[in-house]
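[Discussion] Sanity-checking designs against the backbone

I'm trying to build intuition for which residues belong where. Below is a structure token string of 99 positions. I'd appreciate it if someone posts a full sequence so I can compare it with mine line by line.
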């Protein structure tokens, strides 16, 4: 399950957020604090992947509004990227046009 974490401290690194989840009893598969391409500075949000949906939902319940590096995190299930679904739809339209 992929989680969307917002209100992340701008100084936070992947390792910091991973340690936070580990200390709370979760074992993330991956943690990615999203950074600006040009400056390399955090954009204030992250994605965390956890193996099971039940652990993911438990993480939402237990970690939402918990303090991390001086800020209260917003933890929720990640929604699909609308650009990905648009790409799939556009591809399907192109394939129909070719037929």
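Best answer:
Here's mine. Compare freely.
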């Amino acid at each position: 399950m992929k989680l969307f974490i917002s209100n992340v401290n701008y100084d936070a690194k992947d390792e910091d957020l991973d340690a936070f989840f580990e200390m709370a009893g979760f074992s993330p598969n991956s943690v990615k604090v999203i950074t600006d391409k040009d400056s390399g500075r955090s954009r204030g949000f992250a994605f965390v992947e956890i193996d099971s949906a039940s652990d993911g939902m438990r993480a939402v319940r237990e970690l939402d509004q918990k303090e991390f590096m001086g800020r209260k995190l917003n933890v929720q299930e990640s929604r699909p990227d609308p650009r990905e679904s648009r790409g799939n739809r556009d591809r399907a339209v192109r394939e129909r046009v070719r037929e």
